[in-house]
Amino acid sequence: MSIDPTKLPNPPMPSYTLTIYNLDLFEKSKFKNYDSLLESRLANCQARANHLASILENGSAISVNGTLIKPHDERESKGAREKVTGTTATYLVGQYVAFFALGTEQVKSYLVIDTGSDLVWWQCGPCYKNGCYKQKNNPLYISTNSKTYGKLDCLVESRNCEITHKEYECSPYGNTCIYDYKYLDGTRTRGVIAHDVITFVLDQKQVSIVFGCGKDQTHGKAFSGQYSGIAGLGRREIGGGNSLPSQFEADIMSMCLPGALSPKGSTLSFHTTPFKKTTSATLVQDFRFASAYFVNLYKVFINDREVPMFPSFSRNFGNYATRGSSIVDTGTFITRFPKDFYTVFSYTFRLQVRGIPMIDVPPGSVYDTCYKVNTTGPDPHFPVVKMYFGSESPNNLLLLAQQRVMLYINGVFCLAFMPWDQNIALIGSNQLQGIGLTFDTAANTLSFDLDACN
């Protein structure tokens, strides 16, 4: 049964709190069954992971929704589209959307949230001729209808235009700050940098933010009509930056990522958190990818058997290296480990499975560890994965079990981790769904409140 996103409840939230939904809930009607939707999500996840790898290898690049961007770069990348399990994938796919009320008319809009980006933009009428794609779930925001809308003036705010973000530039006509982002798959958003208010409905508090007023998003095929733009949640930059944490001057950002197809919305909050901060990882900043949230994965166990770290599993931060360096990324679905570590990880996992037959996977499959289970019998119990951050202490332990370890697809259970060629880990949303996450950049911690929001 298809769910109409326009009829989803968006309950009034206090200041600096937004409702978030899993994007799968909006898009499932396009697929014949859940398995085909999941295969598409995995394909998009693979493309995003590949591109995050390119960002890590080119530290001076700008990341917008996980996409490597260079101003006015018209060259095509041979990897811009990638074939994975029969599905064409692009890099412009997020996992979650947040509900916003935009401008003085409080236009109801869904924006994709992305912890790997520092840009906020949405479609902004009046559009250039045939410049805006059709939005399925919410009306088009019209800037001329908002009494609080205003363009960024280059004469008055030249520093904001030219320095705050490397991709903005002042137009020689009309003192307007403009942007033109071309994603590597050919998709593009361009328009003017402006400011307007968003409203937190419960107390009608209005907060003015700088955003990209998107006048033309019709090049390429990646943008989905299920949302009207992107809200960057990248790490706060003190004294600058255009991610929401930066603009809200919020050291604390908390969220719970709702499960796929769950009609129940969850929350995204700034300045405060409803979650316990008992279990935490240290946040480590890498200025080559400043918007990302890095944590230090110290040890990994399968049940009580330790998976040894390799010297390659590290990343240099300034003058020192951090073993087990990992990025927490809401736009990635499946967690990835460096290839040599993953080889031992999956082998150790297989040794710890008892009484469940492993099956041969087809050549070229994205999985290498899958099991067939009698669906009429009791629920299978697979090994747990213990992830320690910083030290081997209960206060640094994230315990993953069942659906956070195994993915059920096409009638079999497969290990929900994958290898990649980078020397760091990429922690995705499948492992984090239902966990209360608190990003605290003042204390440099990311806290995990297990099953706090299921």
UniProtKB/TrEMBL annotation:
One of its GO terms (biological process) is proteolysis. The active site is at D114, D329. GO terms for molecular function: aspartic-type endopeptidase activity. SUPFAM superfamilies: Acid proteases (SSF50630). Transmembrane segments: none annotated. InterPro entries: Aspartic_peptidase_A1, PEPTIDASE_A1, Peptidase_aspartic_dom_sf, TAXi_C, TAXi_N. Residues 96-449 form the Peptidase A1 domain. It holds the Pfam family TAXi_C. It comes from the Eukaryota. Belongs to the peptidase A1 family. PANTHER family: ASPARTYL PROTEASES, PEPTIDASE A1 DOMAIN-CONTAINING PROTEIN. This is Peptidase A1 domain-containing protein. It comes from Capsicum baccatum (Peruvian pepper).
